[in-house]
Amino acid sequence: MTALRHAQRRERARHSALQHGGPGFQGGVVPTWFLVTSLPNIRYLTGFSGSNAVLALDLRGPEGDVLGTDGRYQDQVRDECAGLPCLIDRATLVAIAGHVSATGSGSILLESSITVQGLDDVRAAARGWAVGTVAGVIEELRIVKDDGELGLLQRACSITSDAFVALFDEIRVGMTERAIARRLEQLFGDFGAQDRAFETIVGSGPNSAIPHHQPGERALQPGDLLVVDAGAYVDGYHADMTRTAVVGTAPTPWQQEVHDCVRVAQSAAVNAVTAGCSLSSLDATARDLIIAAGYGESFTHGLGHGVGLQIHEAPMISARSAGTIAPGTPITIEPGVYLTGLGGVRIEDTLVVDSSRSRVLTPMTRNLMTVG
User: Fold this and answer.
1) What DSSP designation does 13 have?
2) ∠ CA(364), CA(365), CA(369), 5° rounding?
3) Element (H, E) at 315
4) What distance in Å separates the CA atoms of residue 121 and residue 65, rounded to the nearest whole number?
5) Contact call for residues 168 and 226 (beta carbons, < 8 A)
6) Residue 201: CB atoms within 10 Å
7) At 306, which helix (H) or strand (E)?
8) In the chain, helix, strand, coil percent, each to 5?
9) Across the beta sheet with 107-111, what order do the strands follow?
10) Burial of 151 (0-12, 13-18, 19+ CB in 10 A)
11) CB 93 within 8 A of CB 67
């Protein structure tokens, strides 16, 4: 990602921040600075990948922009953010607020995700300046990905799919959920990922009915349903994929029935994704089929979500979601049916909306497989 591309993003962020304003600036006061404290947003705007940073955007023009971090990252910030002035101080937020207030008089806009303590610190350091908060300024810009972002996401998804295929060939009766999770994460690294995108979910037998089950020491038994939900992480971008299998034997009729229900609903939703489609109607495409099959009460979460620099980001896809999908938006489609005490099925793919239709980035078969 080039310094020019990040500078262009900061210009869009500057314009968006001025448009949004904030509750602290009612009455016509125009904010003069926007402090970005969310690390994914800072990475999007600067390329900086460290664990401590604050970006001050001068809303009057780019000349005043400055990135704050601490001494642990002074070499890293120089390499990742060439040409962007940097302030090094362990008390980064206070130092940036003090730097901004020393430029004269004005007002500061903050991301609403800042902590209460952080807001108090800025108000104290800014020496009486007006301080307000606003939500979603950068998150809205991040929804539609550029070609570079989509390339990284495609790489993360390809690694994820390849690792799942390799893992499912290795699974055997008697392996524990935790051993399966650790092996999959090792495969991510073997195939070129820097890390896992999130804590790997592995649920077997009755645990497969727990949507976000934390893998434990339960050993796989013949006839178990096995749900694996995981993703690879590549240069800041997160993949997300879920597949369900049966362990050691052919599926029972009820297992096949539930899986067929989820697979048909998931395929219908994937095929319905087009630029401009309604988020809530997309959820209904899958949910109505699951309800018609008699499992509506067992589909207990939304249909999907955006994915990128965070594993869950806008847009969220549920019955209550407003808005539509824009071209260049990567999303997940992940219906599930969870039968307490018996087992569950979830099928999830990451896809991106091109100019007219969707393109699946995690191409592994969705059929009910037998493993082990």
Assistant:
1) H
2) 120
3) strand 313-317
4) 20
5) no
6) 21
7) strand 304-306
8) 40, 25, 35
9) 86-88, 66-69, 54-58, 33-36, 107-111, 130-134
10) middle
11) no
Which 3 state secondary structure label does DSSP give 349? strand
Q: Is the pLDDT of residue 24 over 60?
A: no
pLDDT of 23 higher than 60:
no
| CA-to-CA separations, 97 to 6, 62, 64, 246, in angstroms, rounded | 22, 17, 13, 56
Average pLDDT, the chain: 95
Q: Which amino acid is at 67?
A: L
**Residue 193 corresponds to which amino acid?**
A
Name the pTM for this structure: 0.94
Say how many residues make up the chain: 372
The per-residue pLDDT for range 278-294, each reduced to its tens digit, is 999 999 999 999 999 99
Evaluate the CA torsion angle 166, 186, 79, 125 in order and state its sign.
positive
| Residue 100 identity | V
What DSSP assignment string belongs to 85-146? -EEE-SSHHHHHHHHHHTTSS-EEEEETTS-HHHHHHHHHHTTT-EEEEESSHHHHHHSS--
Q: State the residue for tokens 């125009």.
A: 30
CA-atom Rg of the chain in angstroms: 23
What angle, rounded to 10 degrees, do the helices at 147-170 and 177-190 form? 130
Q: Which residues pair with 57 in a beta bridge?
A: 34
* Beta carbons of 258 and 339 less than 8 angstroms apart: yes
Task: Name 274's bridge partners.
Answer: 357
* Interacting residues of 364 by C-beta distance below 8 A, sequence separation 6+: 161, 164, 165, 241, 243
Q: Is the dihedral of CA 168, 173, 175, 176 positive or negative?
A: positive
Q: Side chain identity at 358, as an amino acid letter?
A: S
